[in-house]
Amino acid sequence: MAHVFFRLVVSVLVLISSRGAFALEPMAYTVMGRDGQGVLRWITEKSTCPLVHWDSHPGVPMQLRAAQATIVARSSQQIDRKNANFELRSCEAVWPETVKSAQVESIVVAAPATSYQRIVIIADTGCRMKASENAFQDCNDSSAWPYAEIAKRAAEQKPDLVVHIGDIHYRESPCPAQRSGCANSPWGYGADAWKADFFEPSAPLLRVAPWLFVRGNHEVCARAGQGWFRYIDAQPWQENRSCNEPEFDALADYSKPYIFSINALTQFLVFDSSATTGKRLEKTSTTFKNYQRQLIGLDSLLNKNKKTVFLSHHPLLAIAPGRADSNAIAGGNKGLLSVFEEMYQDHLIPKNIDYLMHGHIHAFEALSFLSPHPASFVLGNSGSAYEGVLPETVSAGLEVASGAKVSQFYSHSDYGFSLLEISDKDQAPWKLTAFDRKGNSIFLCELSNQTTRCTRH
User: Fold this and answer.
1) Which of 12, 90, 146, 358 could be stapled to 437 by a disulfide with Cβ–Cβ 3.0 to 4.6 Å?
2) 3-state DSSP helix/strand/coil % of the chain, to nearest 5
3) Quick one: CA torsion of 219, 222, 224, 227, rounded to 10 degrees?
4) What does the pLDDT look like over 110-168, one tens digit per residue?
């Protein structure tokens, strides 16, 4: 299939009561998981799961993934806490291999493709409301929080896959009483915040194509992990991987890496970096040991005859804004790097990785290196509040991690999204276009032989 899309309109969220609750008409979308397996999801306030009709055959019941529930608030770094009310039921059905479409009630959904060429990439989309940093974005202002417009413009690109590289949920604290820009916004970790931060603004893009999600630090168990496993994660439901009980966090906060096949020549390697920290990890720590164990198993996952894109929320080789707009500092995550340095020494990155793609830093950047390191992209500019402005250039030879010296650097700090166009022909270069919030192209980058060169439009 050239394009995978939802063929009927998915209803959007509307405000229905003075308490600020949102009602969600039933919504169908597809999440993609390991081995290219697609899972059809149905999110509804109804008390039962519906029938799914595969290729117009008689309906079979969708399976309950997670029922409505109110869950005691998890401890978090925020002062204000409230129980997580998940009034949305999550139902699901695994896509059969030979099926071309599915119908649930009045919504018809096309099956996932077997090869992908146009891939929208977004990250860090939610509206920041975080009391511990006194950081409050004006969620009611589409200029201050433009994710809804970005999703609409990205859908106009007619992608056959959407990749979200983490940090979906940002509404962790109540809007201050004196701040009109986010007044009455849902907050906390329940379904109302998920609807406002993700499902409502994502509706145009959810109905266009299936989604591949990469978990971010905002989706760890102590934050929005419960919603992640209910609505987003593609793996089968397991109660001890639901983030409901803190005693199982050491299991639920780590997911094994997996391969997602793009076409006969390309694969994405999805790595869950959500539990890492900004500081170097002690070798005796659970996080260090878990990541080390996962990296040891990478060789068995990789098809060395394919080009491989490494996807993780936290960057490895990147530049972050300094304290002044004109400054730039090494932006790779120190926790992850401490493990990768132990495993791969000076090279830092597994040798069969061709490109790196990340979120976390709220900007667009593309880097190539004088040293033998794969080109790196940071694509975390899709809606969450700015955290500083990157310089447009850096000194040649700037070292962003041990031995990783920059040859080419391109950046912009505007809100937007990216479109990766992957050829199914051997040796043909790829293209990555960086768009602003209105869908205007800013950079056109050519990817070839583990490097990138970009031209500004």
Assistant:
1) 146
2) 20, 30, 50
3) 100
4) 899 999 999 999 999 999 999 999 999 999 999 999 999 999 999 999 999 999 999 99
Whether the Cβ atoms of residue 13 and residue 196 lie closer than 8 Å to each other: yes
CA 362 to chain centre: 13
DSSP 8-state symbol, 281: P
Query: Which residue type, as a one-letter code, is found at position 261?
Result: S
pLDDT score at 278:
93
State how far the Cα of 143 lies from the Cα of 147, in Å rounded to an integer.
9
**Are 260 and 267 spatial neighbours (Cβ–Cβ below 8 Å)?**
yes
* Chain-centroid distance, C-alpha 260: 14
Report the chain's terminal Cα–Cα distance, integer Å: 30
pTM of the model: 0.93
DSSP, collapsed to helix, strand or coil, labels residue 304 as coil
pLDDT confidence of residue 24: 64
SS3 assignment, position 353: coil
Domains of the chain (ranges plus CATH)?
114-456 (3.60.21.10)
**Helix, coil or strand: residue 39:** strand
Residue 146 · residue 201 · CB < 8 Å: no
Q: Tokens standing for 158? A: 């007619």
For 185-207, what is each residue's pLDDT tens digit?
Answer: 999 999 999 999 999 999 999 98
